Amino acid sequence: MNKKNKLTLCTVVSAILVVVLYILFHETGHLIVMLSAGEVIDDFSILGAHVSGHGGEYTFVSNLWLNANGAVLPLIVSLVYLLFYKKDRNNTFYRMFSFFTGLVPISSLLAWVIIPFVYLNGTAPPSDDCTKFLMSFSQIANPLFVSAAALVIVVLGSILFIKKGVLRNYIYELQALKKEVTVNSDLSQ
Hints:
Blueprint: H1 3-36, E1 39-45, E2 50-55, H2 60-83, H3 92-108, H4 110-120, H5 129-137, H6 144-163, H7 166-188
Antiparallel strand pairs: 1-2
Helix pairs in contact: 1-2, 1-3, 2-3, 2-5, 3-6, 3-7, 4-6
């Protein structure tokens, strides 16, 4: 298999796999809090990207966790994965999978940076986890604290992503493809 086809296949498969895993961990994050609050789970769907239940007794803190843990659990899994990343491993699938494993959860936190501003403007999406979190959190503190905390986590996660060599290896794979395409183009002339 040539480099272009291999890179394309590895990119598509790893992106799909990471999105499915992200949804699994996101919904599992909600599920953990729901179960700890004593809820009876009615439905758990990865493809539908939702979990629902009834009952349960929520405190102020568990209600915050219910809405935050959808972002927190996949982020924790991603950061732990990045901590164990082996930058010298020369495997295209591993490099593409690792790139998306870091990129998706870290970049999903950008919503938690932006939505507090939108929330203060009164136009936040009502069904969003961050908006639901802010409805409770804003009773005790300014929503911009959430924005600041999320921004710090995005920056620190991005630093880890770069320091561990994930971005470098992703760029290396793209450059190797570009070199192969250039060489093949020169040979065909």
